[in-house]
Design brief:
Blueprint lengths: L1 H9 L4 H23 L1 H7 L6 H29 L2 H31 L4 H50 L3 H7 L1 H23 L1 H27 L3 H38 L1 H6 L3 H53 L4 E2 L2 E2 L7 H43 L19 E15 L5 H8 L1 H14 L4 H20 L11 E16 L3 E5 L6 H6 L9 E6 L2 E2 L5 H5 L2 E4 L10 H6 L7 H10 L3 H7 L17 H15 L3 E5 L7 H14 L4 E5 L11 E6 L2 E6 L1 H7 L1 H13 L1
Parallel strand pairs: 5-10, 5-11, 8-9, 9-10
Antiparallel strand pairs: 1-2, 3-4, 3-6, 6-7, 11-12
Length: 722
């Protein structure tokens, strides 16, 4: 609930919107109660053949006679000396005089504004009902529209904040958690939260106000009788609290299951060529069915608690109404003014007052029934808020310095100083299914409540002993699921990738990092743009630790071409211009020519540079995507060029084009190549040979062949393959 309140606070800045929502809600509630209040004049006045004027005259006459009789009783009681009776009669006279004053106050207005015919009185009352209903409809529209606007405004801010936080996370977050998890939180969970915010300012504000107006009306008729009907309220509070906890817990787990389901779909569709080529459709369908069934079971748990809400509230509401009817029937039939010795009114209730009381109770029951649906949706919104804020509150592992050191143009060297790195593996906390079932069973709630009540009768020493034993038992229970080192209730494990790496790369030098898969090549390169930070050690640029440098100053001097070059669903022109947004069309074309991309863009794409390349560049071949990515890096003209397996998945012709482009481009900047394709090593001044996370050798290609058997073996295998 705390995170949901945080989401509500985001909307408090829209003060006038909230003011109009509250005003329209109050007007709507008053009209709701006003329509119900017309029951009394209909039953007590018009249906008795009176107009309001004649009824008031009759009531004034009856009250005057009644007061006169009570004063005679007062005189008799004063002679007997019965103080209690004197006090009771005096109180009745005072109440009767107050009621008489009200009738006398209303009489001149009734003569001026109400008809003196019983039927016309009914017509006037119905016109009043019609007008207030029309006004109530306008208020309902206004309130619903403005509350929806507040919900959308709140979710709009949260989406921006969520997206901003996601952009600030280290790249390993996405590879460990998966894109589907973030997408589910960003879409499905955010929509649920938006609906919850709209409900808070909509039905959750409107329906309780309607209920309050009706309860106030019922209290005016007889507040004592109203209190008598509230005997079921404590039980209702206990049951609703239990349902709230159960619904929120189940809803949150259902959202997690949905994220896993989306992840399964996303993974399968992205790998559809592999699935079909290995004829594994049935296997993928079976995996999907397992996730789908798990989500179904979680959804049915949500449905179970949701289905319980309406029957419980309905039974409690009927119980209250039954109590009210029995109590009212007793008071009317026997003309009593008290229940179990407790006064309910100064005079016996008339039929009109009792019908009005029942009308107000029924009027309050309809908003109460609607609140059950609101209650379910609010609990889902609370669960969604927890999942959204879990991402927003997470601290990124790679942070920018609060007081960064200005970084001038790179001109000296990049130094890796005793670098170690362990990949953190975030694991979602495991939940013991059996313990979760115990927590949500109503029997356990009642047993726990009875146990606490029993302990209250025991001595302080016994209670302390029991509390100590319970604490030990709880510690044992939670030991198996307690999160290990980490934050955000995540259990973290780690896998060491780099061990004591020390290396200096001079400005203008071209370095090739080679080694088997998994030896830490890409990890080492990822530290230069600070996608990740060393676990131990440091990386320096021109003598300044990267942790002291502003992200934008550092990354403005870096160009990256990776193994899977990402293109956006935009034109070829804009994909190249992404490297430098202020570049002219001529500069983009020049960069494309330098990357040997201009020819295929002009001749093979339907609209040349203005052709869309499709989502992820799916309308281009792998070699074409790589050349556009290289053109993007060339256009940026970086001081440091990072090539991470840039030619590992393309054809020989495309690789030849890229090598020709690189030969022209790398001479005036520092270039670092991570490659399995040893044919690219001819571009490098030095070779860094890595093995099992450590630097095995640093030197020229010729030196490495002589001094490093491991490198010589790699080179020999590559030559044989060629």
């Amino acid at each position: 609930m705390q995170n949901f309140v945080r989401a509500i606070k985001l909307t408090l800045k829209y003060k006038w919107n909230i003011v109009w929502v509250v005003l329209s809600s109050v007007c709507l509630a008053v009209c709701w109660g006003g329509n119900i209040a017309t029951v009394y004049p209909l039953v007590q006045v018009s249906f008795q053949g009176d107009s309001i004027i004649s009824w008031l005259e009759k009531e004034i006459s009856q009250q005057e006679s009644r007061i006169a009789e009570m004063r005679e009783e007062l005189e008799v009681a004063s002679t007997s000396g019965d103080e209690r009776r004197l006090e009771s009669i005096s109180l009745k006279i005072a109440n009767a005089e107050k009621l008489l004053d009200k009738y006398r106050f209303a009489e001149p207005y009734a003569r001026k504004w109400t008809p003196d015919n019983p039927f016309l009185t009914v017509v006037a009352l119905m016109i009043f009902v019609l007008v207030t209903t029309l006004f109530k409809s306008v208020c309902t529209f206004s309130q619903s529209y403005l509350s929806a606007r507040l919900g959308q405004l709140g979710s709009q801010e949260l989406r921006s904040l969520f997206f901003q936080k996601m952009l600030g996370y280290e790249t390993t977050y996405f590879s460990q958690r998966g894109i589907a998890d973030a997408t589910t939180r960003f879409t499905s969970d955010m929509n649920t939260l938006s609906n919850g915010l709209a409900l808070v300012y909509g039905k959750a504000l409107r329906e309780p106000l309607k209920m309050i107006v009706c309860l106030i009306g019922a209290a005016i008729v007889s507040w004592q009788l109203l209190l008598f009907t509230f005997l079921f309220v404590p039980l209702a509070a206990v049951l609703i609290r239990w349902l709230a906890k159960s619904l929120k817990r189940v809803a949150r787990r259902a959202m997690a299951e949905m994220a896993q389901l989306y992840g399964r779909v996303d993974e399968t569709f992205h790998s559809i060529r592999v699935v079909k080529s290995f004829d594994r459709e049935d296997y993928e369908l079976e995996k999907f069915q397992r996730s789908n069934n798990a989500y179904f079971r979680r959804g049915m748990k949500t449905a179970k608690y949701d289905a319980l809400t309406s029957p419980i509230t309905e039974c409690l509401g009927i119980g209250m109404l039954v109590l009210a009817i029995m109590a009212g029937a007793y008071l009317i039939i026997y003309q009593k003014t008290s229940l179990f010795g407790i006064p309910t009114s100064s005079r016996p209730l008339d039929l009109g007052s009792l019908v009005l009381f029942y009308g107000f109770l029924i009027g309050a029951s309809d908003p109460a029934r609607r609140l059950t649906d609101i209650f379910t949706n609010i609990q889902s919104a609370c669960a969604a808020a927890d999942r959204v804020y879990e991402v927003i509150d997470r601290e990124p592992l790679v942070k920018e310095s609060e007081r960064p050191t200005p970084l001038s143009a790179f001109s000296q060297s990049i130094v890796f100083d005793g670098v170690y790195y362990e990949y953190p593996i975030e694991i979602a906390p495991q939940v013991d299914a059996s313990s979760s079932k115990r927590r949500v069973r109503l029997e356990d709630v009642l047993k726990s409540w009875a146990s606490r009540r029993w302990q209250a009768f025991k001595s302080r020493g016994d209670a302390a002993k029991l509390a100590d034993e319970a604490s030990k038992e709880t510690s044992k229970t939670h030991a198996s699921v307690a999160p290990a080192r980490g934050t955000n209730s995540e259990r973290r494990e780690s896998r060491q990738v780099l061990k004591n790496v020390s290396l200096e790369i001079k400005f203008g030098e071209t370095i090739a990092i080679v080694g088997r898969s998994g030896c830490g090549k890409s990890t080492l390169m990822s530290m230069i743009p600070r996608f990740i930070d060393p676990t131990i050690g440091r990386v320096l640029i021109d003598g300044t630790p990267l942790t002291d440098v502003k992200f934008s100053d550092l990354r403005a001097q870096i160009g990256l071409v990776s193994q899977d070059s990402t293109l956006f669903n935009d034109t070829a022109l804009e994909n190249i211009r992404y490297g430098r947004p202020d570049a002219t069309r001529e500069e983009v074309v020049a960069a494309a020519k330098d990357a040997y991309a201009d020819e295929f863009i002009r001749e093979e794409l339907s609209n040349g540079y203005d052709s869309l390349v499709g989502p992820g560049g799916g309308l281009l071949s792998g070699g074409q995507r790589q050349r556009i990515a290289l053109a993007r890096a060339i256009l940026k003209d970086p001081k440091i060029l990072l090539l991470d397996e840039a030619t590992s998945q393309i054809d020989v012709q495309s690789e030849r084009y890229i090598h020709q482009a690189l030969k022209k481009f790398i001479g005036t900047r520092t270039t670092i190549l991570v490659t399995h394709r040893l044919s690219a090593i001819e571009l490098a001044d030095r070779v860094v040979v890595m093995q099992d996370g450590e630097i095995q050798f640093v030197g020229t290609h010729a030196e490495a062949l002589k001094s490093s058997p491991f490198y010589a073996n790699l080179w020999a295998n590559e030559s044989i393959d060629a």
